């Protein structure tokens, strides 16, 4: 039997993604009712973090415990991964002991290589290219607040980074229009843009992207691994801050999302974080439920 991985949203069909979102909502409701549901008893998720994390680590760890299993946190600092053991060997060893492996890394190729040599599902917990688990939570959040996102218009403001690339894939899978506003030289990856065709449009003007949008997103201006560029990026991105006034140009049903962590006063104004249109903390909470649905899908179904 072929092993299913979740390295990008394109590893699932639209129908599978849609049922994952619904299942996330169901699991959230069961959790809130205090129902004990432990289909993953004795199952183990290994989690490799080559970058920092709050939400991804805690949501996977708490989620595995709630489903009756366990998660093991691994970092290159205190494993042989940090001392040069090849990915291929690490994949064979870890996948012989664990039931799934989540990886947060730099180069997306690391995930691809690991998956190639793994006998168990590999989950992308963020790479330089993509952050698909975040989009599961984000799409679940939109569904909960506003219903289906199909046919809606979504704006991405700021850096054409891993989150932006993932929104491009989400536009293809969930059938919405995406308007990206970014400075020259900070566009999303050409391969994702090319795959999406006219579903995604690029502009330099945040106001143009936000006009009439049903969902507005932003993210940090310097991602993990770009710390040296942070100062230069602050200047370049200054016209791209998302504020309540910018959101006023959107559709009146608009929601504001940010995957967090946020830098108030940079990519998002302090007031917008607490604006009634902001659902950033619902997104964070939904990481738990969306990923419980994902590991259930990969390990139980
Ligand atoms: N949004 C997100 O992935 O957060 P962490 O970096 O805290 O995991
Ligand atoms: N673009 C950010 C997302 C963090 C969750 C980063 O890669 O650092």
UniProtKB/TrEMBL annotation:
GO terms for biological process: citrulline biosynthetic process; L-arginine biosynthetic process via ornithine. It catalyses: carbamoyl phosphate + L-ornithine = L-citrulline + phosphate + H(+). L-ornithine binds at residues 162, 219, 223-224. InterPro entries: Asp/Orn_carbamoyltranf_P-bd, Asp/Orn_carbamoylTrfase, Asp/Orn_carbamoylTrfase_sf, Asp_carbamoyltransf_Asp/Orn-bd, Orn/put_carbamltrans, OTCase_ArgI. It comes from the Bacteria. SUPFAM superfamilies: Aspartate/ornithine carbamoyltransferase. This is Ornithine carbamoyltransferase. It comes from Pseudomonas jilinensis. The lineage of its organism: Bacteria, Pseudomonadati, Pseudomonadota, Gammaproteobacteria, Pseudomonadales.
């Amino acid at each position: 039997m072929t092993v299913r991985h979740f390295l990008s949203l394109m590893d699932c069909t639209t129908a599978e993604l849609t049922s994952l979102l619904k299942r996330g909502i169901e699991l959230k409701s069961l959790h809130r009712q205090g129902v004990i549901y432990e289909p993953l008893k004795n199952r183990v998720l290994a989690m490799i973090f080559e970058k920092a994390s709050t939400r991804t680590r805690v949501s996977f760890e708490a989620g595995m415990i709630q489903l009756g299993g366990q998660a093991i946190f691994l970092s290159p600092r205190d494993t042989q991964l940090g001392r040069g053991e090849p990915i291929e060997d690490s994949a064979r060893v870890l996948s012989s002991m664990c039931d799934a492996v989540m990886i947060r890394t730099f180069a997306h190729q690391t995930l691809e290589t690991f998956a190639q040599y793994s006998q168990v599902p590999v989950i992308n917990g963020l790479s330089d290219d993509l952050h698909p688990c975040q989009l599961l939570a984000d799409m679940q959040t939109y569904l909960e607040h506003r219903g289906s996102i199909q046919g809606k218009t979504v704006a991405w403001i700021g850096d054409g980074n891993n989150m932006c690339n993932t929104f491009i894939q989400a536009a293809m899978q969930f059938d919405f229009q995406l308007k990206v506003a970014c400075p020259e030289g900070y566009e999303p990856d050409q391969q994702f843009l090319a795959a999406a065709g006219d579903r995604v449009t690029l502009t330099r003007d945040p106001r143009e992207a936000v006009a009439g949008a049903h969902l507005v997103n932003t993210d940090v201006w310097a991602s993990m691994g770009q710390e040296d560029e942070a100062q230069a990026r602050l200047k370049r991105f200054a016209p791209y801050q998302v504020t309540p006034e910018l959101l006023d140009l959107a559709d009146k049903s608009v929601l504001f999302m940010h995957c967090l962590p946020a830098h108030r006063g940079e990519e998002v104004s302090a007031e917008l974080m607490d604006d009634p249109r902001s659902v950033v903390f619902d997104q964070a909470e939904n990481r738990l439920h969306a990923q419980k649905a994902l590991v259930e899908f990969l390990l139980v179904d």
